[in-house]
Structure formats: structure tokens, C-alpha cells
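Forum: Protein Structure Q&A
Topic: Joint prediction for protein chains with partners

I've read a bunch of threads here and the consensus seems to be that you should model interacting components together rather than docking separate models afterwards. I'd like to see that in practice. Below is the full input, 542 residues plus whatever partners are listed. Could one of the regulars post the assembled result?
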Amino acid sequence: MTRALAVVIFAALAAAPALLDVGGLALLTEMLVLLAIAQSWNLLAGYGGLLSLGHHAFVAAGAYLLFAVTRDLPVSPYIMVPLAGAGAALLALALTPVLFRLREVYFAIGMWVAAEIVKIAVSRLDYFGASSGLPLYAARRIDTSWLPASAHWFALALAAGLCLGLWRLQQSPYGLHVHAMRDDETAARSLGVKTRRIKGTIFVLSAAGCGMAGAISFLGTLYVSPVAAFDINWTVNAIFICVIGGLGTIRGPVLGALLFVLLREGLAAYPGWSQIALGVIAVAVMLMAPRGLSGLLDRLLPNTRRAV
Amino acid sequence: MTLLQMQKLTARHGDFQALFGIDAHVGKGETVALIGANGAGKTTLLRAIAGLGTREAGQLTFAGQDILAQDPGALARRGIAMVPEGRRLFPSLTVAENLMIGGDVGRRGHWTLPRVLELFSEIAPMAQRPAGLLSGGQQQMVAIGRALMTNPELLLVDEASLGLAPVIVDRVYEALSGLKARGTTIVLVEQDIRRALAASDRFYCMLGGQVSLAGASDGACIEQVSQAYFGENQ
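Posted by a regular:
Agreed with the consensus. Here's the joint model:
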């Protein structure tokens, strides 16, 4: 039943470019990008127990890699989307020797500091357009009329792939090891669970997801700048989406992303109020339903508990 | 045959040196008790054996091979399993999942999920419940079962009786006695001197990170052990 519903939703989302106008499609693509970033953050924090306040660095890394490489090499920007994820993963790998010495809140702050350092470096390097950023030079080589639809399909494939990947993780013995590490790292280590390798793997995969999401998002805007790419709101929104939806679940960020976009658009006529409303809802959910909307669903539909 | 050998082993607990040249050994199939007051270094020694502590110097061999520099994962695969103080289960996972983790990463052998649930029949009906919802006694059984699922040659048990009702402690020690009968080598940390001596073949009493007294548990003089436990000035 759940599987059939997922297939129907996927098919409907895939058909969206033919059904929606430009504004509607852009909004849906943005929601899918936000969902992809939230699921990537969820993999690290909800499943692995590692809170990061600097995931916007990976969003930016993916975006900048796509813009810089397609400027210098005759590579299609579409081919660069998965490679942007690989680039963000490499950045994460480079950060692990320092960041994995830090624990809990220090890791979270360390990630934030790392993101700021990368932002300052990119803002000063002419190769990346310094503080002005870069246009998508490769736009000349592609039919841009297809760009909104292509970005949408990429975002859909990424978000769906991440949801599917998390579902597979939940079903696998490896998923048990990840949960064990999150619950008690020392106890897991004493049993032979390779906690360092698991942490490294989910950190790198989480960065790759954000990198691809960043590449897709800025592919649609045709321009990348440090202010937009390194905006901490990428991370803050991911945290919000996971918290209100339900951390450590698959459907939580799906519900969270939907609510986030609906609230923001619903309150768009009242500038500033949407942020206040989102903050109030986040606090209310944390106080009254610590397991988020997903937890509320569990209470209402107990048979679906732990399924997704 | 000696399974575990320590010579002049020193180790740290955080920033502090907690063990000062421990010389001890554990024979294959033996149950050895580590007794001592809080802060004596018992848990640090157990953690050092399991690879969870900071081992500094000295010799530590298991089945004749140096394990001083090995990580806990490698030691678990070689047959050293630990039941930690406070149980430290994975609360969000079910009882069965907690047990299966031990089975996933450990060695193949006698202990399988059905056999562990048979040994601790009390927890069998709760196999699909989150481990965090179990009582302390049930959690202790899961913690021992989880360690058994790695099919250890050497089982390290830290404060198995901590916070449990006497009747539950009896049940836990009955299970440990059964494991000993199966040939499992056990090192147990226990603050209750009488219980520790009753459950073990030999004992090491620790004080201030050193062995203050060692000997056979059977016929050990409680007064002498108590003196070694608290120090001569007490």
C-alpha cells in the first residue's frame, strides 16, 4: 500500500513540468531541493546522531563546482550534478581529520566554523568569481527552455533516491549499526561496530546529497554567489524541516518540507511573519510532539510505527 | 592455560592515571573477580582489556598475542566481549535488534538469537519491544545476551548487580555460573565482596589503581579481603 502510494506520488511529481506553470514548478523544485538537503542532514543527525550547523558549505561546494567546472571544461552541467555531489563528498572527507576529533556540540560548531572558512576562501578567490560569484557560462551550450523541467527531474530523482536510500538503510544490518552508534557509541564500539567508518561514511554521503542539491538549485537560477550559496538558512531550514517532521524518520522530512513550503507561501503576504510562525511552530512541536509530525502519525496510526 | 596476561599494565582514566603497574592473569575457563571500592581502578582495568580505555604501557596479551594496541572492534572479533556498567543498551532498538548487533559483528559459534532467548527466557516475550522500556534486570540480561552473541572466549562483566533487586542479581549470577560451566572465561567486577568471592575461582582486590591482594576465592578470609578493599588505615 505504502509502496503503491509512493509510486503514484513519484509519477505525479515526475509529470509536474507538463501540469504546472513556471512558478508552480519552481516552487515544487525548491521543495524537493529542500527535502533532499533535509534528508541528507537527517542521515547525519537523525540516524547517525551527529548534529551539523555547517551543511550549507556542502550545498555551496556542489553549486560552485558545477559553475566553475562547466566554465572551464566543455562538460554538460547535467553531467556535473552527480560530480558536484562527489566534490562535496571530497570536501567532507578533507574535513573529517579535524572535525571527527570533536564531539556533540563542538562538532556542530566546528562544522559551522568550517563552513565560514570555506565561504571566506571562496569569496576571495577569483577562480570562483570572488564576492561577485559566477554566472552559468555553460547555459550557452544547452537549451535553457528545458532547464526548469530538468532541474525539477534532477531534484525529484535526488529526493526520491535519498528517501529510498534511507529506507534501504533502515532495512539493512548496517542500519542497525548506525542506530546503535547513535544510541551509544562506546557500547557499539565495544561490540565491534566500526563506528568511525560509519560516521565517516554517513558524513560523506550526507555532504554528497547536499552538494547535488546545491548544484540543482543554482542550476535553476543560472547564477551562484557566496551570499546565496553559503546562506546558513540552507542548514537552518533543513533542521527546521527535520524537527517539525520528525528526526530519524523518512517521512518526517517529507512532511516537514511540505509544511515548510506551505507555511512560507501561505504567509508570503505578511513579510517577516512567516519566519515568526515557523519559529513558533518549531518550538510548539519540540514541546508537545518531540518526535514531530511523524511521531503524531505513529500515535494516530500505530500499525505504521517504525515502518518509515 | 593462561588466556589473559597483564604485566606492569598502566592506563589512564581521562586525564588521570588510574592503573599503576597491574600484574594479573586469567586462566582459560576461570572466573576471576575484580573487587575494590569506587575509584580503585576496576572499571578502568576492564575497559583497558576491552580496548576502550587509554592503555599506556606494560604488557597485555590474549591467547599469547599482544593486544595492547588493538581497538575494541578487533578485540571483539578475537573473542573479548564486555557487559558494561549500567548496561548501556541501545534504547531505540528492540531487544532482538540489540542482540543481533552482537551477532552481526562478532564470531560465529554456539550463541545465536534463539539460544540467548532460551538462556534468558524472561526476555524472550519482549524481543520486539524497545530495549529502553525494559526493567533494569531485564536490561542486564539483554546486555549479557548481547555480549554472548559475539561468542566470546573472554566475557568482561562490569557491576552486574548494580541497582538490581537481590532476586534478579541471583538470576544474573545463576546465568553467569551456567556460562562458566560451558567453559566461558569470565572477569567480573563486583563491589559486593561475598558475592564476588562466591561466584569466582580467584580474585584480585584493587586499591588506588594497584592490586592490593590476590588469591583463591574459596576459603579467602573476608576480613583480610576487606582490609585490602578499604586500605590498612580504615
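The interface with chain B takes residues 173, 176-177, 179-180, 182-184, 186-194 of chain A (CB under 8 Å).
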